[in-house]
Design brief:
The chain is an alpha/beta fold. The chain is built from eight helices and ten strands. α1 crosses α2 and α5 crosses α6. Its cofactor is pyridoxal 5'-phosphate.
């Protein structure tokens, strides 16, 4: 029995691909992070960043919190901040799906929309200015070590135990890079031969949730040494695989998860054998107002 909603974060299912895995000598698993109460992998990081920040005294119930987000982290922060009695302002591009915006507001957060043409970088700049000029405290998922440590403490161990230590490859889309940094750190401690594969969009591809960051905005928590290889996916690949996940695997997810799955399938084709785990970072229902599933 869970005593708190927060106790239900983590311990998400790991399911074996039944239909889209092209290689019978490879086991391809999907880590279904949409089963978290806020609907995404970001629940893990949001909980750790808020809990650790409160414990250190970085902020308290009188603080004005702010964070720039492309969506999932904002939803997770809105949910968890509400449970802790904290006020938070979330800043995101105006072309974000209405499901994301409405969900954050439902949890009680203030949502500020910045111009679409400056993207998430513009949202980050807005939040930085509020910190400098109005005394806000920024959670700062891009530089906050509690982000990646959440996955060192939970995601990595869960995958290791669920695969009985047999995992050979871990595949994750890269946004803030917290998931891949923390999971890599844990898995490499267990077995340095495990290959960590990051997924980025190809040039000019726009895939919500994953980025190829300009150098000035590269997350400070990112350490390239913790990623063995990077695979690029284009929009068409990500969209088509997102639809295949739903239709052929019964996994209803967002486009970044489709991108990771496309990379994992491509990887599986190159291996003689192995155990691949790919992160399915959120649920597809927060993209229904977009053209993703048309």
């Amino acid at each position: 029995m869970s005593h708190s909603l927060l106790d239900t974060i983590g311990n998400t299912p790991l399911v074996l691909s039944k239909n889209i895995n092209p290689n019978p000598n490879v086991s391809l698993y999907f880590k279904i992070e949409g089963h978290n109460p806020g609907g995404s992998v970001k629940d893990r990081a949001a909980l750790n960043m808020i809990k650790a920040g409160l414990e250190r005294g970085d902020f308290n119930s009188n603080s004005k919190l702010i964070e720039a987000t492309s969506g999932n982290t904002g939803i997770a922060l809105a949910m968890i901040a509400g449970l802790y009695g904290l006020d938070i302002e979330l800043v995101m591009p105006e072309n974000s799906t209405k499901e994301r915006i409405q969900t954050m507001r439902a949890y009680g957060a203030k949502v500020t929309l910045t111009p679409a043409d400056v993207g998430i970088e513009g949202a980050r700049d807005y939040a930085e200015n509020k910190v400098k000029e109005e005394g806000f405290y920024m959670i700062n998922q891009f530089s906050n070590n509690d982000n990646w440590k959440a996955h060192y403490q939970s995601t990595g161990p869960e995958i290791w135990h669920a695969t009985h230590g047999n995992i050979t490859h871990f595949v994750s889309s890269m946004g803030t890079t917290g998931t891949i940094m923390g999971t890599s750190t844990f898995l490499k401690e267990k077995n340095s031969k495990i290959q960590i594969v990051g997924v980025q969009p190809s040039d000019d591809a726009k895939i919500p949730g994953i980025r190829k960051w300009p150098l000035a905005y590269l997350p400070k928590i990112f350490d390239a040494k913790k990623v063995d290889s990077v695979l690029e996916v284009n929009e068409l690949e990500a969209v088509e695989m997102t639809k295949r996940l739903a239709k052929e695997e019964g996994i209803f997810a967002g486009m970044s998860s489709g991108g990771a799955a496309a990379a994992a399938v491509r990887l599986a084709q190159t291996l003689e054998n192995g155990v691949i785990v790919s992160i399915v970072c959120d649920r597809g229902d927060r993209y229904l107002s977009s053209d993703l599933f048309l």
